[in-house]
Design brief:
The protein has about 325 residues and is an alpha/beta fold. The chain is built from ten helices and 14 strands. It is about 35% helix and about 30% strand. The relative contact order is 0.13. The structure holds adenosine-5'-triphosphate. It comes from Halopseudomonas bauzanensis.
């Protein structure tokens, strides 16, 4: 399967809510078939608005979205039938049983009944034993599992997960990620929003960062980390220093740990990292090392840096 084929095309998408609040500003985004795309952003960035528009729950104010070629406004039914959405909030009828909830959901999308498929779905989500329980009798975690089953009941090609692991326990979180991987292996395209950067780092093929209604970037996870990641050289000293040695003045070196560690931050992309020069300069000054390690900045640091920069640019404008 080609991973570069676009399955969802978003162009110039804008949203102004009735209150006059502009939640999205001309977003362009191409989602590739079969990928896991993580949308990261702080609270109120516009992540839910973006996915709600693609899923046909919120009307766009401007721009265009197609899902597998179908326009989400003109060909609403066809576009929507390709999508499963696991929303942030519980939306089930509490008086229905688990089984009724999933069969109804499948039927709503015009799919013929398929007991075997729904049974395997409920088994995968550890819900089979609960199939005859009413929704109101389930724990919060179980209700979440039902939301996932409901989203998958019509065998969608694309699955949206809106903050799927916010407030869920470790077990459900693990199950959820296992399920996401299995679905990806079956060719399902997965878009998830999250505040948990570690999750994006672990799961996603590509990462989009949204801030204040703008998509700041979409990039392959590995490329993002390589391009924006700073590396650090951590030098533990034999003897603590009271001040930075003159030979390293003007370099991006800091003295930490009560003077017992020097940290040199450099651009991992650069051909000339300056590591050799730095170590030679220190040696010339008679500074002895106990240990030297290097580390790569985490996605979290990259993300915080990006959002910080974009907020600063805005306040200057
Ligand atoms: N129906 C609405 N009417 C007016 N403003 C809204 C409406 N829904 C969302 N907003 C505003 O739009 C902005 C984006 O909200 P959205 O829910 O898309 O953000 P988010 O990135 O998903 O945030 P979170 O991570 O907190 O879920 C917020 O400032 C929110 O208050």
């Amino acid at each position: 399967m080609s991973t570069s084929e676009t399955v969802i095309a978003v162009s110039g998408l804008g949203k102004v809510y009735q209150s006059g609040f502009q939640a999205l500003k001309s977003v362009d985004l191409q989602i590739r078939r079969g990928e896991i795309l993580a949308l990261l952003g702080p609270n109120g960035a516009g992540k839910t608005t973006l996915i709600s528009i693609i899923c046909g729950i919120v009307n766009p104010s401007s721009g265009k979205v197609t899902v597998d070629g179908y326009d989400i406004t003109r060909d609403y039914r066809r576009a929507r039938s390709l999508i499963g959405l696991v929303p942030q909030e519980l939306t089930n009828n509490l008086f229905d049983t688990v089984w009724a909830t999933v069969t109804l959901s499948r039927g709503l999308f015009g799919k013929p009944p398929n007991r075997a498929y729904l049974e395997s779905l409920l088994r995968d989500l550890s819900l089979w034993d609960k199939r005859n329980e009413k929704m109101m009798a389930l724990s919060g975690g179980m209700k979440r599992r039902v939301l996932i089953a409901k989203a998958l009941a019509h065998e969608p090609q694309i699955l949206f997960l809106d903050e799927p692991t916010a407030g869920v326990d470790v077990e459900l979180r693990r199950d959820m990620w296992a399920m996401v991987r299995t679905l990806r292996d079956k060719g399902v395209t997965i878009i998830l929003t999250t505040h948990y950067i570690e999750e994006a780092e672990e799961m996603a093929d590509r990462i989009g960062v949204i801030n204040r209604g703008e998509l700041l970037l979409v990039e392959d996870k590995a490329v993002l980390m390589r391009q924006l990641g700073k590396r650090q050289l951590i030098i533990q000293l034999q003897q603590p220093l009271t001040a930075l040695p003159a030979a390293v003045a003007g370099k991006t070196v800091e003295l930490t740990d009560n003077g017992s560690t020097l940290v040199y931050t450099f651009d991992a992309q650069c051909e000339q990292t300056g590591v050799g020069d730095l170590l030679r300069a220190l040696a010339r000054e008679g500074v002895e090392f106990k240990d030297v390690n290097s580390s790569q900045s985490s996605l979290e640091e990259i993300f915080v840096g990006l959002v910080h920069d974009s907020n600063q640019q805005r306040s200057r404008a």
